[in-house]
Specification:
7 helices; D-Maltodextrin-Binding Protein, domain 2; 5-stranded mixed β-sheet; binds calcium ion; binds D-MYO-inositol-1-phosphate; Fructose-1,6-Bisphosphatase, Chain A, domain 1; 7-stranded mixed β-sheet
Length: 262
């Protein structure tokens, strides 16, 4: 019952945030950089994060709320609940007017992902999951792609860090080998929405190795509740820590994916 209140609140806030993002998309907005010239932030990211985090804190005053643009290095509390908010996942796409970005809100309670919401405001696609209750797209249940059992048939997706300080981590991946092993490889520019696409079977597998908890909290639950598998790149259970590595898939290709990345 409580989880349902959490989910409903997250959905309402994600949709309100999405309305603002949709209105401002393609217009003029203030912008700047964070860790370097490629690590972009806009006034829309900040405006929308304020809306979501203020709403969550007002409704759940005992919860920890961690948002990307106000990150102070907070840790998930051992007891209680922590919200991870990425107000606009895919900021570079938003700035360049590439129509692929989303709002991502995830909740972890006692160290377990509990609720996940990913909202694509341009397509009005709302992905939701509650622990133990499955994944839904606009209210209809979805599953990962259970038809593709081999990496050779998989459409994979990955991403690249905008913080160039972590660019060297890409060197650990043999892209030539991965591309040769799968059907094809994409990089669409929004980790949360890419995970949502795995949950509904549009993509088969995903990996990235310098993500933050707000990039993956919601999307990981979407994938798991849709029958898929999520681990770090060594095959261990995913821990929501900073600069994490992640592999997510329909489950069937997971071991092959990890092997090809190792
Ligand atoms: C980024 C996106 C992108 C991923 C980057 C993230 P942001 O998040 O999820 O797909 O490759 O590593 O930083 O900055 O657009 O919220
Ligand atoms: Ca992000
Ligand atoms: Ca963001």
């Amino acid at each position: 019952m409580e989880n349902t209140v959490y989910l409903e609140t997250a959905v309402t806030l994600a949709q309100q945030a999405g309305d603002i993002i949709r209105e401002r998309y393609g217009g003029n907005f203030g912008r700047g950089c964070k860790s370097g010239p490629s690590d972009l932030v806009t006034e829309v990211d900040r405006q929308v994060e304020d809306l979501i985090t203020t709403g969550l804190r007002a409704k759940f005053p005992s919860h920890t709320v961690i948002g990307e643009e106000n990150d102070k290095g907070d840790r998930e509390q051992g007891e209680g609940c922590t919200w991870y908010v990425d107000p606009l996942d895919g900021t570079t796409n938003f700035v360049y007017s590439v129509p692929f970005f989303c709002v991502s809100i995830g909740l972890s309670c006692l160290g377990r992902l509990t609720v996940g919401v990913v909202y694509d405001p341009l397509r009005s696609e709302l992905f939701t999951a509650e622990s133990g209750r499955g994944t839904f797209l606009n209210g209809r249940p979805v599953r990962v792609d259970e038809t593709r059992k081999n990496l050779s048939d998989a459409l994979l997706v990955t991403g690249y860090p905008s913080d160039k300080n972590y660019g060297e981590r890409l060197a650990g991946i043999n892209y030539q080998r991965v591309i040769a092993s799968c059907s094809n490889l994409r990089a669409l520019g929004s980790a949360a929405l890419e995970l949502a696409y795995i949950s509904c079977g549009r993509l088969t597998g995903f990996w990235e190795n310098t993500l933050m908890p707000w990039d993956v909290a919601a999307g990981s639950l979407l994938v798991e509740e849709a029958g898929g598998r999520v681990t770090d790149l060594s095959g261990n259970p995913l821990a929501l820590r900073r600069y994490l590595s992640i592999a997510a898939s329909n489950g069937l290709i997971h071991n092959e994916l990890l092997q090809s990345l190792s």
